[in-house]
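EI: anyone free to look at a 413-residue chain?
SC: sure, send it
EI:
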Amino acid sequence: MTDLTNTIPLEMPHGNDLAMSRGTDFFHVAEQLNEREREVLRRVREYCDTQVAPVANEYWERAEFPIPLVEGYRKLEVAGGALSGYGCPGLSPLAEGMVAAELARGDGSIATFNAVHSGLAMTAIGLLGSEEQKQRWLVPMAAVDKIGAFALTEPEHGSDVVRLSTRARRQADGGWTLHGRKRWIGNGTLADIVVVWARDDDGEVGAFVVEHPAGAANPVPGYRAERITGKAANRAVWQAQIELDGVRVEPDARLAHARTWDDTGRVLATSRQTVAWEGLGHAVAAYEGAVTYALRREQFGRPLARFQLVQDKLSHMLADITAMQTMCTRLSQLHAEGRVDLPHAALAKLVTASAARRVCGMARDVLGGNGILLDHHVARHHADIEAVYTYEGTDSVQSLIVGRAVTGISAFV
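SC: here you go
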């Protein structure tokens, strides 16, 4: 179990009102949630307003992962999202998406922690694991007694994941040894359970679970995770460069139903939906901060909100947000019907990441010089949206996935 007690939390200052939720939902999307799911969303919103917002800037500036916030995340009981059983909450895809957006509204680093632990690691096990594997790993992960990571990206192969070079070599007793390198692995230095993607001796793609790679009493031989430093976005979430030098795993560590890139695609089609919702969350945070600021900040003897140019900007920001909400909502409905494919998720990520980038930029402009100060919160979201714009496939990669679906022609090569 990851130790969540040995870090002294930063002093909790009073939360800045620019980070408090205004409940932006112009088309009343939340009305489609059931009563239980609305209560979950309320808890997440309260957590972001009372626990995350007061300390997010300090952790971001120090590039320190907010370990004390994980206990509050645990109590939300949202890990596992739409997965059912094994202690998972069994939320609808819509509720899962709205939770992801709300966490991003609070802080991009906490949202990324959730996206990796719940949306990638747990989803991979939930979709591709055997019954025994799901019982073994999902139960402690749903309780956040064990933290998960998902190791697919490699230093030489970012978006070009098909060139996967990490190898899994079969041993005489049926076990495996893993050899290779991974990069940009969220939670990589914290995780108890890492889902590592590798090619086996037959060239098949597989997912292998490495347990207790970091912080364990007996560290796994050959496993080394080093935190990536110097980031200008998502500074408070720790991503790692991972070296795998003959890491030994047991025969049952390979997820039973992970054999081809189609299996990988099933996980990514789900996780990219989460990222689309995350982009929306950043946009909402920036927009709400801009509205609050415009209502209280005076220039030339009157509030900024009374100026036509400011109202025009706020209206265009809300238009982008509402369009993002409706697209993400329809995507979640298709997911619930079992009709989502990778191009659907790619289109949603393409649109929301670009629109959120635009909204965050306009919000920063509304705040003027204060827009680059962390204590006004918009600056943090303005920086973090750059990470969302890139991870889970860049803007260009998403457009090529959509273009292939439209034309039937692959332009990747």
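EI: Residues 219 and 273 are 34 Å apart (CA to CA).
SC: 👍
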